[in-house]
Fold this protein.
Amino acid sequence: MLYIGCHLSSSKGYMAMGNQAAEIDANTFAFFTRNPRGGSAKAINPEDAAGFVKFAAENNFGKLVAHAPYTMNACAADENIRRFAREAMADDLVRMEATPGNYYNFHPGSHVKQGADVGIELIADQLNTVLTAEQSTIVLLETMAGKGSEVGRSFEELREIIDRVRINNKLGVCFDTCHVWDGGYDIVNDLDGVLGEFDRIIGLDKLKAIHLNDSMNSLGAHKDRHAKIGEGHIGADALIRVINHPKLRGLPVILETPNDIEGYAREIKFLRENYSD
Ligand code: FE
Ligand code: FE
Ligand code: ZN
């Protein structure tokens, strides 16, 4: 089963997202848990959430991959920014329990000249403060392109974070194809080798979701600019091999390509046509 979807707006609630997903033949989706500018998040309507949980089960949806705001930086040098990151994530994880058992993806952070080692410690500190043994949500560290001082540009950095987190059975990784490519992993010519490396360093059991994006830049560019499927340096064939790879089958696949809803519908149709059940 191919679980595929795109980013949807959460402004009208869960049922609105579920219906919109169904209209474009999606059976998972991503959404931002709150406004990236910060402040308090909109309250969740428990009836809307419960209605969606039923709808998702009836329509065989895969796990959702919620996205934390981009402005969340767990390893900022400024304590106020770190506090926002901690409080927003803790609050988001409470809210995620309205739709139990899904994924919550976040960008590990930017160490802003403090060094990756300090960044890794601060990110792990935040996760040790926020994760609970009772939560049903799995928190995902996103693989990053290595733009600026981003932490998580290599599998080794992600492994170092995971190793420092006590409740790390609530932690996983989201594999962003544009970021991994920009980070220097050749998923076009050696997908098996890249996944083998992921398995050796992190363990494929930790790989929980895929962000499927083409890239405007070349291998190792450390840029992070997404392109539509087939319109970038990765290309449609390589992305089709990603969704069909035996070690990745069944994971939720989220498109973050520069598209409106019709563009997403076309990409979903194209990828379903190129998926072998
Ligand atoms: Fe992301
Ligand atoms: Fe992504
Ligand atoms: Zn990106």
